[in-house]
Hints:
CATH architecture: 3-Layer(aba) Sandwich
Structural class: alpha+beta
Amino acid sequence: MNGVEALTCSVEELLDFLKSRRSIRRFKSEKPPLDLVLKVLDVARFAPSAKNSQPWEFIIVDDPNVKEKLARIHVGARPLENAPMAIVVVSDKTRSPTSYLVDGANAVMYILLALHAVGLGGVWIQTLRNIKEIQEILSIPEEKIPVAIIALGYPDESPKPKPRRPLEELVHYNKYGARKPLI
């Protein structure tokens, strides 16, 4: 049985589910159970990576003092202030020297989608301009790069979808700039 046959929803429902994920920046104070977060991370293990290198590791952060330090790395990290938990995705550049950032980003996306699937919310927080600072806060070895921080918890907001660029602006055929009308 393939993945599509195993689904209990239609393909259209699944595609709508994927399009319904939103970045959640406000969270209820209730901390999600650890087993639910571990279920999400179990899904992230199945993200694609170059040569199946699987260079990712995950740091679950629920210590308020550590979250506070991470929330101060830059203005975009402020959702960590009210998030009951966070996951820091770390990618080992020795396991995947040319694609560790992309591999780590794939794991981040799997986490965000899995959070959505289990009823939790999350927001991706950029880390690449604060690598050394985050490594210091979390005692991360130099060869392991914090690719992203995900603030997570039970959503305390329901953001509306933001406008998206039309597909016609994004699709090219056989070479850049070659356009065909979309069916």
